[in-house]
Amino acid sequence: MKIATRSSKLALAQTSFFQSWISNKNTEILKIKTEGDKKSALGELLFDKANFVNDIEKFLIEDGADVAIHSAKDMPALKHLELDHYFFGPRSKSDLLIFRKDINPVFESEMKLGTSSLRRKMQAKFFLDAKNIVPISGNVDTRLNKLNSGDYDCIILAEAGCQRLKIDFEKLNYIKLDHLTCAGQGILAVQFKPNNKFANEFLVDWKQNFLQRVVHDETEMEKKLLAKIDASCNSAIAVRATHEGPKGINKIVRGEIYGLNQYISFEGKSSNVDTAIADAIDMLKNKNGLELLNEHN
Prior knowledge:
By secondary structure, this protein is an alpha/beta fold. The chain folds into 3 domains: 2-88 and 187-209, D-Maltodextrin-Binding Protein, domain 2 (3-Layer(aba) Sandwich); 95-176, D-Maltodextrin-Binding Protein, domain 2; 236-294, Double Stranded RNA Binding Domain (2-Layer Sandwich). Helices cover 36% and strands 24% of the residues. It has 10 helices and 13 strands. It has helices spanning 9-21, 35-41, 54-61, 118-127, 140-151, 159-164, 197-207, 210-228, 273-286, 289-294; strands spanning 2-6, 28-32, 67-71, 84-88, 95-99, 112-114, 132-134, 154-158, 173-176, 188-192, 237-244, 250-258, 263-270. It has a 5-stranded mixed beta sheet with strand order 2-1-3-10-4, with helices on both faces. It has a 5-stranded mixed beta sheet with strand order 7-6-8-5-9, with helices on both faces. A hairpin with a 4-residue loop joins strand 12 (250-258) and strand 13. The longest helix has 19 residues, at 210-228.
């Protein structure tokens, strides 16, 4: 089985994680340098995260690989017409606020905080009263090096990425944030052409696992909401879906939308996914959430 992936250290760690989840050990990793990787190498910050995915999708369609591994958050909200996908993995959904090693891990509003995410920027403004938020580029290791070299007082990183890179948390000077995160954060996605024989083999086992099905279904619910309001992981929105109760009968989606000077919360709950999403969208529209989203355009 040929597995396509980006060539970054984190992408390769995520691909190794996928390999540990399947019984087929006869695999080959194919490293793809995507347009997103090229933009990142040039220090660009403001580009669609789909740039990390599109080149690999084209490679799949042209039968260059059997499956591809992505970060679920980078996947476009709208499903690709020629490809299937399945979301998987244990979910680690928190962001970490990591301080320089010589700083007491208590946030002060004038600290120089590094993040390249619009959502994180607005959450830092509203929830931390941050006054000095500046962009940061590079992979996880690069950002940590910039932090400890004194370029920043603190930075925000996803807990999942740090875990997959096996960063020693005992050596980090951090606090865990309780903010909502973006759709699919901490989850991985495997993508493939319909009826791919290798994908069908491992999906048989995955779909029989109730907890794994819940992870997939919750992430699909988050992506579906984004698609219906024309948003993405680049938007100033946080969303979290959960399936609660016996056999996950209660479908709940909660979120926040951040404007330039205010934010709103929304929620939808039903035994039906589409109804829960519709209720959530009705609530955010009634609170002028779409207008707040568009303030950043």
